[in-house]
From TrEMBL:
Keywords: Signal. This is Bacterial surface antigen (D15) domain-containing protein. It comes from the Bacteria. Residues 1-33 form the signal peptide. The keyword Signal applies. The lineage of its organism: Bacteria, Pseudomonadati, Acidobacteriota, Holophagae, Holophagales. The keyword Signal applies.
Amino acid sequence: MRTTREGVGSRGRLCRRSLVTALLAGSALVAQAPATWEELEARQARIASVDILIGDVFDPSQPNERHWIGRAANFLHIETREQVVRREIPFQPGDVVNARLIHEAERNLRTFRFLKDARIEPQVDGDGTVHAVVHTRDAWTLKGSAGFTQVGGQRSFGFSVHEANLLGFGKDLVLAHEKTPERSIDTVQYLDRQILGTQWTLDTRYQALSDGKTRFLELSRPYRGLETPWAMSFRASSSDAVESVYNLRQTAYAFSSRQENVLVGGTMAAVVADGRALRLGGGLDLKQSRYGPIQTLAAGSLPPPVLRDRQLRGVHVTAGLFEDRYQAFVDLAGMTHPEDYNLGWDAQVSVGSYLKGLGSDVASPFLRASAAKGWTPGARSLLLLRAKGEARHESDGWQDASLNLGFTAYHQGFPAQTQAAYVQLDAVHRPEPESYLYLGGMDGLRGYGNHLLLGDRRWMASLEERINTSYDWLGILRLGFVVYADGGAIRRTDTGRWSRTYVDVGGGLRLGNLKSSVGRVFLLTIAYPLVRDPGTEHHQFVISDVVRF
């Protein structure tokens, strides 16, 4: 019995020592676990320093990026200058940790084309000192390209030089020439999101067309966070071109068009509380439309467009609701890069009137509204809603009215796979020619030609199965695959009835560009139309870097 009691006692002492050891080990692990920004905010910790670490395009510490191409690219690439990143940091040494501000800064940095990733991590010293370490990695931003794109049976080709981080200062410059089925285009575009080192953005574009020209200028101070006190924008654009109305993939009518638009507006954050901001403001709207004679081509039974010259000048008031509920996802629309989606409401309504006293041709009230919202019904699912509408009322009724609804769903039920679905509903009423609805290749039916049918009501849906492999070539391209099905129908302008439902299926390669934040996914696929009209091609090759959802 003694032996037994001693044995029991020894086992008891051993168990107690094991328990103490486990507790100490657990405490050590807890102590070593990195604190989150939310935990540091709860402790009212202060930031001692903000350290900027800018990584080059290729990371030589990664075996698959340690090669001569990577070394040459890093040598030629001009790294982003530290002040460009620091201007996007809304907190300073000595500030109390604010987790929301830190996450906002991460998202803002990830929207820059010259950065392919950005994160801000806490570093806590043994004495509790907190450092904010900003990690960014540069993208390869100099792109010289020459090639062609084929979507919907129509080919475009051209060449361009695009530098998205000019001399490391974060400026974006594009020089391009393109030949499309409609026209040739020479483009010069410049974008500066930190003009003169401020929070103001300058976006300019000039295009010389074979049948006219377009000009665009926007100077704006956007909201960069929930508590940004105010935002303002000045936008002006003009275009001179020959516009075409299509039907059955042919040009039905052609006419010259001159459009001029000026929008001056601003809002301020009237109320900010509980992760929400109510923003109120107003502005000035100026529009002018001028059209030339209509040239009738292959019109068939399609009625000619109603062209009305207009000069519209008015004012508007705006109310908006913004909720900051962002979450980051990976491998939904893109590949390998963080994708930020807001699960809160982002809605805005503008109500105004064009006034004869300001020089308008007609007294016409107008309305513009937009809304976006996201949901996560499960840990591996995401639902997104996008809605937009606008209209103006004249003496003979509503004019240039449009409504657009889009629903996107993602589900990642299996490793390396993403199921994606998209549904789009559109409607127009007495639209201007620039707002016409078409059904065809460039609109989402990848197995058909462009401008298949013209109408005033439209629905489209797409399903995709996306497979992302772990294979990448020298850390530059990631291999993926996609299979898809598209469907849609339109209420035709020429008959006034709904078309039959057009369906196509297809699949091919989905290549992720791992070193560029511009055009992160390339699609090389082939699509087969299952519902065919006379003259419908057997298949369509789709070569594109545009991901619709």
